[in-house]
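DM from R.C. (forwarded with permission)

"hey, sorry to bug you on a friday — could you get me a structure for this? deadline for the figure draft is monday and I only need the backbone to look sensible"
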Amino acid sequence: MASSPFSDLSGKIETRQAHTGVIGLGYVGLPLAITLARSGFAVTGFDIDPGKKIALDAGHSYIEAVTDAALKSEMAAKRFGATSDFSELAKCDVIIICVPTPLTKHRDPDLSFVEATCRSIAATLRPGQLIVLESTTYPGTTDEVVKTILEKTGLKSGTDFFLGFSPEREDPGNRDFQTATIPKIVAGDGEAARELMQAFYGAAVKTVVPVSSNATAEAVKLTENIFRSVNIALVNELKTVYAAMGIDIWEVIEAAKTKPFGYMPFYPGPGLGGHCIPIDPFYLTWKSREYELPTRFIELAGEINSAMPRHVISKLAEALDVRAGKALSRSRILVLGLAYKKNVPDIRESPSLRLIEIIEERGGTADYHDPFVDEIPTTREYMALKGRRSVDLDETSIRSYDAILISTDHDRVDYAALAKWAPLIIDTRNVFTRLGLMAEHIVKA
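My reply, with the result:
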């Protein structure tokens, strides 16, 4: 067979000689990089954060899904290394983009990280490279944005270089699934790109699911997260309705989920967190405007979920008034759990940050305790909270607060001690009922 960019890259993938670059070494990029290295590829991780490179060079993983031992093993085998020198992209045969795709204040897509990354790739783009976007985005981004930037080099997708999309499906804290065992959706710009995507990911992931186009693959990811957003909004709304009727939503869900068909349990909470569910649905609502089509269902779900932090604080203020005869503006509140989900250190889009902000907007004082988050790092929306530290939990500190607000129900907490010492507890996660610790001073919200 005559040599061509496709045949050359296909051969490198088959023999594990394709040097791989992963851009963005966060919750998605680092586990992916180590998974690819374990499968035999040489992987270079790229990140603009110098702190990440320092940690990785020292053999320290800052992502729970990657152990220090796994990291050190791949580094010792010279299958993984990290750099902030993007000129090294020229050496990579496969380049995977795992950078943030946040929203603007007006809930429009912010593709600045993707665009800047694509410009960095374009600076060294050469024939025979496969460029993959994994960042969640609206249908059309890979072909309309990424491809446009890369083809400004004069090289053509499908002929000189190859372009694909494969949505990330990471779930921080989930011990039942790892990157290699989560089925991988893959698509490409043309048949050749799709074949390369299947071969490359198939070398590292147990199950590969090809779809017809990059836009379809982008829509798959949005659909998965819209499904969750809408169902969580439903139970959040039911929570408020049933509470007015004196019905416990958690008891209802526990009974409903005994039905072996036609029902899947979702649970209410203080608001949505994580990078995906609070953000991704709005990528589709933004794109739908181009087609003059409304997305009322999706937007309503977003409104309900976004309103939950204020609902929780209203329940907190009511409980303080009725049970303690004290205004929120004169109260000290401890928010328990800063991470957006239990037993992980991930605070991306965490409703706990918004809860602290609302408490202080209303004149109260708010501290937090989280066994996984010692200090609030820099965030895009809550810069005023940067540097605050988790307080210790002991009898004296617990009794010093007017109320404890359970936002995230980490397992590393002595809830029996909280129930004994706290004057008032607002439980948004039903943790005290689950543990058989309900009492008069514990209020569900």
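R.C.: lifesaver. The radius of gyration is 24 Å.
me: no worries. The CA atoms of residues 55 and 89 lie 21 Å apart.
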